[in-house]
């Protein structure tokens, strides 16, 4: 048996928070993102993720992957866009790429994971993960739709307190850092790195967008268990 458990295609990879979790679970990882990501820690293709996936399907190269993970841009449905920003008239139009991403993932014939933040993104919430589940100092709730496989949902533990910082004019202390934005008591770059377990990038924007690797470490391990049960 190979020392690796399979190969994951990490689409819309950003700086590699998701990819690193799959790496910890034993997978080889290849990333793809539209932006230059010099800190991405694995093999990387710069380009449009959906065009790249379409090409992999057409050429048959997609067959080298065991699982596909996709984190399409979420601004159209995230809680900040549909909540505070909309109420204040801030922001602009955002393209929702969840549906076209799912359509291509269905064409691959492979098991897949679609990740989105809390909000109105139109995905099944087969899993909802939170930093408290992994004893992290950040909450960062994320929802995951699982295609062609399933796993039981883990229990969501009670939060230990507030996210530290200012919100709506009120200052609160708490065990979690605010790993988004700037000012108002938001986390510093070193605080975000420590809270999420991300050491390979110190780019503020990349850290505010990243998911903690603990999430996909858990998902990658759960997928292995599910696959073993199918073939048992």
What does this structure look like?
The protein is of the alpha/beta class and about 230 residues long. The protein is about 30% helix and about 15% strand. The chain has seven helices and nine strands, in the order βαββαβααβββββααα. It has a seven-stranded mixed sheet with strand order 3-2-1-4-5-7-6, with helices on both faces. The chain has a two-stranded antiparallel sheet with strand order 8-9. Helix 1 links the parallel strand 1 (about 5-10) and strand 2. Helix 1 (about 15-25) crosses helix 7 and helix 2 (about 50-60) packs parallel to helix 4 (about 100-110). The longest helix is centred in the C-terminal third of the chain and has 19 residues, at about 215-230. It is globular. Residues about 75-90 have low confidence and may be disordered.
Topology:
Layout: E1 7-11, H1 17-24, E2 28-33, E3 43-46, H2 49-59, E4 67-70, H3 79-88, H4 98-108, E5 112-117, E6 127-129, E7 142-147, E8 165-167, E9 170-172, H5 189-196, H6 204-209, H7 213-231
Parallel strand pairs: 1-2, 1-4, 2-3, 4-5
Antiparallel strand pairs: 5-7, 6-7, 8-9
Helix pairs in contact: 1-7, 2-4
What count of helical segments does DSSP give?
7
Query: Gap between N and C termini, in Å?
Result: 16 Å
Q: What oligomeric assembly is this protein in?
A: single chain
What is the strand arrangement across the widest sheet? 3-2-1-4-5-7-6
């Amino acid at each position: 048996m190979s020392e690796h458990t399979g190969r994951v295609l990490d689409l819309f990879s950003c700086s590699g928070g998701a990819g690193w979790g799959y790496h910890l679970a034993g997978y080889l990882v290849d990333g793809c993102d539209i932006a230059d990501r010099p800190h991405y820690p694995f093999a990387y293709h710069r380009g449009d993720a959906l065009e790249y996936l379409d090409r992999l399907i057409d050429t048959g190269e997609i067959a080298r992957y065991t699982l596909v993970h996709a984190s399409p841009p979420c601004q159209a449905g995230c809680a900040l866009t549909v909540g505070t920003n909309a109420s204040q008239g801030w922001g602009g139009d955002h393209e929702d790429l969840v549906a076209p991403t799912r359509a291509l993932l269905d064409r691959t014939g492979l098991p897949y994971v679609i990740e989105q933040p809390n909000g109105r993104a139109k995905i099944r919430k087969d899993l909802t993960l939170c930093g408290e589940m992994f004893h992290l100092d950040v909450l960062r709730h994320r929802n995951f739709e699982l295609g062609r496989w399933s796993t039981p949902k883990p229990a969501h533990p009670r939060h230990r307190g507030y996210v530290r910082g200012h919100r709506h004019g009120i200052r609160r202390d708490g065990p979690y850092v605010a790993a988004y934005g700037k000012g108002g008591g938001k986390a510093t770059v070193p605080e975000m790195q420590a809270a999420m377990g991300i050491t390979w990038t110190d780019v503020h924007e990349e850290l505010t967008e990243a998911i903690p690797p603990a999430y996909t470490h858990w998902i990658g391990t759960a997928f292995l268990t599910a696959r073993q049960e199918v073939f048992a």
